[in-house]
Each structure stands twice: as structure tokens, then as C-alpha cells.
What we know:
Layout: E1 3-6, E2 9-11, E3 33-35, H1 37-53, E4 57-62, H2 68-77, E5 81-85, H3 95-106, E6 113-117, H4 128-136, E7 140-150, E8 153-159, E9 164-170, E10 173-177, H5 189-195, E11 200-203, H6 245-255
Parallel strand pairs: 1-4, 1-6, 4-5, 5-11, 6-10, 7-10
Antiparallel strand pairs: 2-3, 7-8, 8-9
Amino acid sequence: xxxxxxxxxxxxxxxxxxxxxxxxxxxxxxxxxxxxxxxxxxxxxxxxxxxxxxxxxxxxxxxxxxxxxxxxxxxxxxxxxxxxxxxxxxxxxxxxxxxxxxxxxxxxxxxxxxxxxxxxxxxxxxxxxxxxxxxxxxxxxxxxxxxxxxxxxxxxxxxxxxxxxxxxxxxxxxxxxxxxxxxxxxxxxxxxxxxxxxxxxxxxxxxxxxxxxxxxxxxxxxxxxxxxxxxxxxxxxxxxxxxxxxxxxxxxxxxxxxx
Length: 259
């Protein structure tokens, strides 16, 4: 079974993130970059499915040259090869343009499953699985905490607030996963060394048959119009217990409409 796993390089979650003054896009160069955390679970699940059914795991990402670092991490975890969509024309692309570009790239890769994280920590739109399934004309199975594949049918347990739903679809399909699905493995030294020799194909929008004039910030379907820096953190309120501490705390919580 051949699987394509989508990964995204994002700013470190713990870093102070900001938008660029010039075009109000995320300033990725000012902070450390890491693999989107939930994508690590997607890579792990793709590897487990490969170990159970055979086949290959291909990593697919869209991003600047620096995103190659994230590709190498996925390869060091055990993925077999990678496709990197990288083109300056893609800077500032919206979710719709990103889905169109990734769908075009997926059209060049044979697969039975597309596996991805349910959201990214920079945008948190949680729409990519749905957009890709629509553009590819494939079933979407979202929010998976467990995935099984048998006889051309993929079955997931979809996480809900009260438990889970059991959902089935025919392969090929698009599956998004949540953190509860597994525990991602750490790349071994052997895996890190092997990743340096694994094939990575870099393609541009022209290679995918797309018009460079249809992607990028100037042609995006959404844009940031204004931005306001987060105000400095205010000093907290200290409540002295003089026998009436509980009442004071209750009054404070009530004033904040927390009671």
C-alpha cells in the first residue's frame, strides 16, 4: 500500500510569532522552524500502515527551501522518498491555493492513502483534508484516532467530544489524524544517516502545470488587512485572605463572568 503523508514546516510553537510589516504574512525567518506537531503523528501512522501492509511512504510538502529540513526529519523517521513543492510564486498563498497546488502534486504520485494532521499550529484552519478530498474527488475520513485498512476499505475511529464514530470509505482516500492516534517515534542515528541518501524531488508550479499567476499573495482568496500587537501582560490582582478570602475570590470570578 502506497501512502503519501503531508507535512508542513511551521514556526516553533513556543516562539514569539509575528507578521511581516511589508505584506502581513507570517515572518518565518525570525523564528526557529519545526515540523507541524500533528504531522509527526501522521508520519508515524503512515509508517505503521506501511509496516503492516508493505508499500512506500512518500512525504509531500509545500514551502520555501528551508522546508527541506522538515522533509529530512520525516525521512529520518522512516519515510522512503519525498516531493518538495517550492516556488517563490507560492509566497502568501491562501488555503484554497495551497489545496490546488497540493492536489496537483498528488496527481503525480501513485497512492492508496493520503494521511495528514488535522490542523497546523500556525494557521489552525483544519480545512486541508476536506479541500483535498473535494479537489481529488476522494472520500475524506477526518479526525482519526485509529486507522485500519483491509481489502480496499479504510476504517477510522473519528474522535468526538463524547467518544468516537466508526467511519468507513473506499481507498484511495484522504485521512486526517489527531494526537491520540499514536506516539511518534524518534529518528534513530541510522535513520538520520539514511535520510541523507533518500530521494527528494523538488518541483515548481510550472512543473505541476499550474499558472504562477494563479497562486501567491496577489491572487489569494483571503488576506490579512490589519494587525495589532498583543498588549503587554498586566499585573495580576492579589487577594489577601483576612478571613474573607473565599468571598473576595468569588466576587472577582463573578466580575469576570466566570461564575
